[in-house]
Amino acid sequence: MNNFGIRIAAYACLCCIVLSSCAKKLQDGRIQSAADDPRLLEVHTLTDEYLAELEQWRNGRYKSVTSPEGWLSVIGLHWLQEGENRMGSGAANDIVLPYFMGDYIGTIFVDNGMLKFNAYGESFLGNDGDQPDADGTIYHDGTDKTTVLHANSLIMYVIKRGDKYALRVKNTIAEARYGLEAIPNFEANADFIKTAKFVPVVEPTEVKVANVTGIDTDYKVSGYIQFLHQGKLHQLTAFDGGADYFFVLIKDETAGESTYGGGRFIDVKRPEVGSIYTIVDFNKAYNPPCAFTDYATCPLPPRENYLPLSILAGEKSIKSH
């Protein structure tokens, strides 16, 4: 078991969040009514048009993961301490960068949630629009103006998880980018394309979801997605994924075997206006970033999203992880 596998085991219990308070805010009788809903019995087929679109989606996934700034380019995640965080290739630095960087290139200062960067001489270069503010202030990924720092082939920016900050380091010419020939997938399976019913929460609700580092992050619950498989009704908690999609974390009985042990993600399109139905396409269940790098902070599926069945669809595990 690699280091990430150990972390998954160590923090598995943290993903068992309790949503009893959310349940009280849902419409009563949601499970019983959904089980009798004929729309959930709809059968889907693998048309040529669908298979072509699925192949395009898979190609897009591969290009994204292997791109110069994709997850395979991530080579480090350095948690920042309050005060001074020195950066460079020298072993004495708090953040040790690759050998081709200068011995010392600058310092990130953390002061009660304020972040500043001070470059050393001319050792640091940034693209237009990515420079820190005039006073050195930089912005983490939880803001709408993340500061992205560039130096040689490195791309660096600060992420915030809970109340902690870390510097994520990417290398646009990382060897891992060129080592992945393909993302393995199950054969397309029509049985795992589901017409589903969406039940929204009555009131806005946030829950804490643990990630692989043991840090809890608040996620906004949009509602619950219900579908039938082999006559049994299943329900998944759906988080806010933006204007067009729900973000769903799942784990099924293939996890740790043919699929990634930490679960998989699915983006589910929001119902059309006036409708309560959507499609859950498990053929598009995809690996989280932690399947490709040990330097990601992936959320773990909440306990209620553990499915007691084998989802033989979507992306399979990566051999190196």
H/E element string? HHHHEEEEEEEEEEEEEE
State the separation between the terminal residues, measured CA to CA.
Answer: 9 Å
- Count the beta strands: 14
Taking pLDDT < 50 over at least 5 consecutive residues as the criterion, the unreliable ranges are 9-29
The helix content, as a percent range, equals 10-25%
Q: How many distinct folded domains? A: 2
Report the sheet with the most strands, covering strand number, pairing sense and barrel closure: 6 strands, antiparallel
Give an overview in words.
This protein starts with a helix and ends in a 40-residue tail after the last strand. A hairpin with a 5-residue loop joins strand 9 (193-210) and strand 10 (216-229). It is built from four helices and 14 strands. The chain has a six-stranded antiparallel beta sheet with strand order 13-12-11-10-9-14. A four-stranded antiparallel beta sheet has the order 1-8-7-6, with no helix packed on it. Residues 9-29 have low confidence and may be disordered. With 321 residues, the protein is mainly beta.
Keywords for this entry:
single chain; 321 residues; mainly beta; Tumour Suppressor Smad4; 6-stranded antiparallel sheet; 4-stranded antiparallel sheet; 4 helices; 14 strands
Task: Give a topology summary.
Elements (H helix, E strand, L loop, with lengths): L2 H9 L8 H4 L6 H6 L12 H19 L7 E6 L3 E6 L6 E2 L9 E6 L2 E6 L29 E3 L2 E8 L2 E8 L21 E18 L5 E14 L2 E9 L4 E6 L13 E6 L7 E5 L40
Parallel strand pairs: 2-3
Antiparallel strand pairs: 1-8, 2-4, 4-5, 6-7, 7-8, 9-10, 9-14, 10-11, 11-12, 12-13
